[in-house]
Amino acid sequence: MHQFSHPPSSPPNPLQNVPMPKFSACPTRRQTLAYGFCLCCVPTRLRADAPASFQEVAPGIHIRRGRDEDASETNQDAIANIGFIVGDDAVLVTDPGGSLADGFSVRAAIRAATPRPIRYVLLSHIHPDHIFGAGAFLADQPIFVGHRNLRQSLAARGAFYQSHLDTILGPGKAGPIVQPTLPVADQLELNLGRRRLTLSAHAPAHTSTDVSLFDHATGTLLPADLLFVGRIPSLDGSLPGWIVQLPALVALNPARAIPGHGPLSVDFRTAVADLTRYLVTLRDQTRAALEAGRDINAASATVAQSERPRWKLFDDYNPRNVIEAYKELEWE
Amino acid sequence: MGVGLRRQNWIHPMRIVTLAAFLAAAVAATPVRAAEDEAARADRWHDLAKYIFDGRQPTETAGWVSIDAPTRALDAALVPITVTLAESHRIKALYLVVDENPSPVAAHIVFGPAADPGTLTMRIRVDQYTNLHAVVETEDGKLVSATRFIKAAGGCSAPGAETPELALKAAGKMKLRLSNQAGPAHAELLIRHPNFNGMQMDQATRLYTPARYINRIDVAYNGQRVFHMDSDISQASDPAIGFGFKSDGTGTLSVDAADTAHSTWHQDFPINPHGT
Question: Residue A108 maps to which CATH number?
Fold first, then answer.
């Protein structure tokens, strides 16, 4: 089990120390509304080029809500919650986004918000919807930060992800594979200028490369994909490992937490309870299927079905989660 | 197609069905191309069979052998299949062929006196939409086949979750699951092995991880052969083989496995009437 070694604490004047840049709503949206259409009615192809809209969820923390979809040419893989944190001296990006285009939209939002240098780009884990935007920041020569396992994991999977993302988004649209230059072995403290961040490398959970971030100035936790809200979680690390690490995140008692997928404002404890309920159901029913001698295929069609009404994209991900769980738990 | 596209995701790279595969499916949907595809598949099988069976062609006769597999696999790198053999025939061996895979013969299984060949299960990799053939060879030399079409793609080049070093560390660890059901004893043998097939590229070095896979498994019950299996890169990583055997109550199931790097592993599993 992984825990932060330092309990979260606030500096004396947290809010005054953090710049609060202005970031206006994109004109496209206003134009659209002026013509009497709600945004949801506009063909998505027209929306693809619009600047991503960021929300300042806490002073200096800007997050773009990802779409609850799978990657497509239309959404350019802008499906994860990603953003940036501004300190007195510098900016940290987390995450850079799901494609080169997605990365450039983050970069544009940063440049609209602050002239401060982009010093760090955190790659919260291996999944493409979080990291393929990294190429948009190469010119800034930031320090790319990632889990100690990320380098090897990218070595094994990066090219595969890239080629498949290219087939979905269009040739060359995925972006380059950018390796971390600063590994998080266990914990890492970064300072953006009167803004202290604690990065924690987790044992296998959602993936084998999960890093969470805690912003001491505002008590904000960015657990990335250790927390899914409303969208079905995907399992690619360790099911028991994930379950066992969630109480440690709750114990941090953050003022707020921003999920890797889902609404930007959530009740953290309720969200963790929902996620835990799904993961425990997946674990227990997969174990029961193994016990009953049900094969992997039959199990994938039956396990955790009670969770269907509670999650978006359930049928797209749950059967695969069962296969992942089955492969892990059959060796217990 | 719409549903199909949503099938891709990033949980696990092996699961991604490529766009090319979708295009192939779209094209195949038109009757003319479907007929052409079918003809091409038939030609492919004719050539493969000729090569595998030394010039002979298996006949497809109902009631001898059947294949059960998901029509659209969730995970192209782990497609669970079940082959059922009619017990009334004296079966010597079984071939499992994934026609469109780079190395199509996924398994050649020769049964021994302790075998109960009724049902076999396996997990295979599927590189692109393919026919799957199960061919039984009887003791008097007949070859009888069954066919099943599977929609899955990308299962061969997809990298595993672990790094090669980590994956090989656990290689050879075995587990045996016995079914508690009445009737002939049935077991599933799990063997840890990455089954590197030489198609997985290390992005850092731009080199392909050298092929290294389990190529031989021998299972015996109380000293009598249950089966000998020659296997190939079409077997999923961590191969899992389900099989029946003639059990007289108490005994020992012995497993010997080897990979292409000449590593060998042996394990004895005690069998008792209530399962282990």
Answer: 3.60.15.10
